[in-house]
Structure formats: C-alpha cells, structure tokens
User: What shape does this take?
Amino acid sequence: MSTTDTTASGIGPVEGASLYSVDNPAPVIEPPRQRTKKTPKSTRGNFELAAWLFMRLSGVVLVVLVIGHLLIQLVLDGGVSKIGFAFVAGRWASPFWQVWDLLMLWLAMLHGTNGLRTVINDYAERPNTRLWLKGLLYTATVFTILLGTLVIFTFDPNIR
Amino acid sequence: MATPVLDKADAAGSPEPGFADSPYITVTMRIRRFNPEVSAEAVWEDFQLEIDPKERVLDALHKIKWDLDGTLTFRRSCAHGICGSDAMRINGKNRLACKTLIKDINPEKPITVEAIKGLTVLKDLVVDMEPFFQAYRDVMPFLITKETNEPTRERLQTAEDRARFDDTTKCILCAACTSSCPVFWNDGQYFGPAAIVNAHRFIFDSRDEAGEQRLEILNDKDGVWRCRTTFNCTDACPRGIEVTKAIAEVKRALITRRF
Assistant: This one.
C-alpha cells in the first residue's frame, strides 16, 4: 500500500487525490468463467452431440404431434367445446392415442428441459447458481414425466 | 528509348484547392477509456477532430494519440488488416480499425470505439488475449502426421483438396468473431468461433492426420455444440470467412464422421 494521503471519499478522482495509483491499480473486471490452461476439463463423451441431435429430431416429430393434437382438441369436430371427461376417456381407450400422448409428453418435456439446460449453461455464471437451477429443472422434469406417464397408463374411465 | 513526357495539363488545369472544397470534416470520436491506475470506472471520452472521411478509424485514433491525448492506449501493428491486432467494437460492431473508413460508419453522429467484449480490459482498448489464444492452442492448430520420418519431398495435394479448407485459412486471429459471440460473453469456457475455424482448417486438410483427435476435442461440452448459430461471428469477421458455416461443417463431420 502506498503511504500517500488517499481519501476514500465517494467524490471520485480529484487531482492528486486519486484512490488508485501506479503501485495501487484498480482491479480489472474479468469476464465470467474465463478459460485457463486447466479448464475446461475434458469429458470425452458424446452427450452433447446426442443432445444436439435429439433437439432437432424431437423438434420435427413434435411439430406433427403437437399440431395434430391441437387440431383434434381445438379445431376439428366441434372444437374446444366437445372436450370433457368423456372425450378424454374415449380417446385413451385406444392404445394409439395413449402412445401419441405418451410420446408427446416425453418428447416435449425432454426437449424443453434440454433447451432450458442450454439456457442455464449460457447465462448462469456462478457454479452454485448453475447447480441449483439445474437441480430444480431436473427435479421438475422427472416429477412431471413420471406423473404424466402414471396417469396415461393407470387412467380409469370408471373412476368416481 | 524515349523518355515519356508527363502530361501536365490536368494538374495545371485544376483549380487550387480552396477552403470551401476541403475534404476535411469534423467528427466526434467517443472512446471508452479505462485506466486502472486512475479509476476503477470506465468512462466515455469525446474527442473532436478534423479528418478526411476517406481515412480510417485507426487514423483517427492515431490523430488522437499523437496530437490530442498521448495516454490513449490501443494495439495496432501492420495497420493494413493482416496482423489482426486492432480489432475493436466500433459503433457497436466488431471491426478492424484499420479496415473501417470514417465515411462508412456515419460520421454525422459520434463514433463510439470500445474494447472487444468477453475479454479482460487492461487499459482503454487493450484486452488480455490469453484466454483467446489458450482456446486456439487447445485445438492443436498445426500439422500432425503419423509418419515418424522426415518427409523427403513436399506433401502434395490436389487443387480440390486445397479448396476444401481455403476459407478458413484466411483467419488472422484478431478475435473479432470470438468476442462478438454471445455464448462466449457469458461463458469463457466455450472454445469460440476462432478456435473452431482454425480446427476446421486442419480437420479438412487432406495432409493432416489428426482430424479425429481435433473433432473429439470439439465434441466436448464446451465445443461446437454450444454454437447457437446467431451469425454474429460471420458478420464480424474482417476477412469475410463464413465462420458459422465452418462451425456447421465441423458439426456435420462429427455426426457423419466423414471429413
């Protein structure tokens, strides 16, 4: 530290009374998560490749599934007014619609989760923030997928 | 041989350049200054100068440094768009100061000049390029062959094989692309466009035999799959390299394993 009389007032640099000097420079602002010689650690896996491919393929399949779903539910044959317990029960009596909805649930959930994982990787800077956001995301995903799958397979039209 | 006689009619006929048709205009250069030895804060400082609009931003910076304020700090070496040391953010876009003409960037308004983003600013327009060069080194940007003996003749290659990676040989490592990439701004662990471009240059070179190895490096979690195809890199490249296309070709090579 220098021995000169530096005032730590908030007025800012006045001539001869700057907070910083050649021997005492201000800290530089480093960008988040800088690359060093030791990082990133190599993982040697194909996960990112698979995730990237999955996004494209599931996206294409989802276009068909979701637009078909919306057409049936909201447009064709009376539109949204026809939807009720009986309508859902009638559809899920057929294995075709069970598979359709199951596929839509899994693909949409994994597609969305992977998208959010990407967003977290891109924008969360601190390791702890990343860990917690991803933990929350994966918990919510597993819960929704399991609950949805359970409902599709154990749906009982005679429930009361 | 007769010595040719210079026709002086043109020079004599043109009128003396008067005050009214002076090529000089007044421009305001708004430069983001940062000097850790004075203040922890970066500030925008305006400089007014008379300059020919056909001159470059680098000439304006020189005028400031030489005539107005000698403390202005920036990098430049060749000043002709080859060495890649004067990449900076001019009017919000990454360009080389030595290839940007004043007349092309609307001199009516103040011209903003700041350091490239995503790297530590050391002083004024000078950034710490080390993380950028580390990513470059990490893709092994040199010829690797399996043969152990020194070759006794040139490594020949067809014109088509040479054309395959011609675009990516143009890179001058100015960091304009990498520091325009929003993924790199928030996560410096990403290799960044420049490193991928230089990997592409060797992956698709028929004489090189370590393509597989480089692809494996870029297949990792901070490699090509983090590219969001925002095309910022392609827009920023002062050499006109189709950076996003090169990245896409590396992605395709990874999926098909053909390169």
Notes: Chain B touches chain A at residues 36-40, 117-122, 128, 131, 134-135, 182-183, 185-189, 216-217, 219-223, 225-226, 228, 251, 254-255 (CB under 8 Å).
